[in-house]
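note to self: dont lose this again. the chain is below, predicted strucutre after it. 311 aa total, dont forget to put it in the shared folder this time
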Amino acid sequence: MKEQPFPYDVQLYDRRFLNCFQRHAVVFMKRLGIEVDWLFHNALPAANDIFQQMVVQNKAKYALQSSYFSEDDLALLGVRFYERQAEHLDDLLEIIHQQIQANGCAFLSGDVYYFAHCPEYRSAHAQHVVVLRQANADGTWDIVDDNAASVLCEYRYPQQVLEQFFQNEGARRMFCLEWTPTPISAVETSFPQRHQAFLNDFNNDPWFYYNLEHLLDNPLACDATKFRALHDVFTLLAGSRDCFSRYLSMTGAPEATQERVALFAKEAGVLKGLMVMAQITGKVRRRDLIERCAALAELETQYLYDLRLPH
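---
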């Protein structure tokens, strides 16, 4: 199995905030010339919502539910995704080839257990999406997917492996992309309006930021569970605010506001790093964690105030 780096914006389109399908989709939509960064207008999930899902409900990070990547927002870019299901991969080959010819990609869902480049290879089962790029004359397929560091790379696999990947995931489906280019003038008008509506409804209750000590003292969960969940909270906060910062740069938001959002993302990344160390050592730098978390709350209050000012 040969691994080749795949060219894309590694820092922005990463897996801190985006799940596997969203990341694949934005990378390949960008290659088609679709202005995907407009979608980040609401890449701002509230800390309390993230906490509720990651800590209280114990969801996996990739399962975060937010208003980002909605069908309505995609439609403003002229994009629609739809599913095709089949019992066998052979039944989807025609539409896969049509998607590759039209868009340069096809998104196939399956089980990572069968891919040698995945950390779960032959050891764990998990639903995943990969990108099919082309079929080769020798019966192999070129695909794009995450490497062990969650960076997109190119791989080549026999069709038999793709069949195993596809066959052993319950839904047995692929995601198809339709795109009708939209006038940029319409896009530049519609997304700021949707962004403003999103901000008007945004609930920035800072409860999570100021109650971290109570969470650490919770006797109903072991430290390992708390550290993992909080790691995911800070990862999502950092990744989402980096994406949101890109949207702000597109719309000419004040430099000071952009800098505050970027600083928030950076500081949330520091907290993520502290939780990585906590998972390794079993200990947490409690005072540092609590103080940095309170500082995040102040930064968020400041940039939300800026954003809600009339311009």
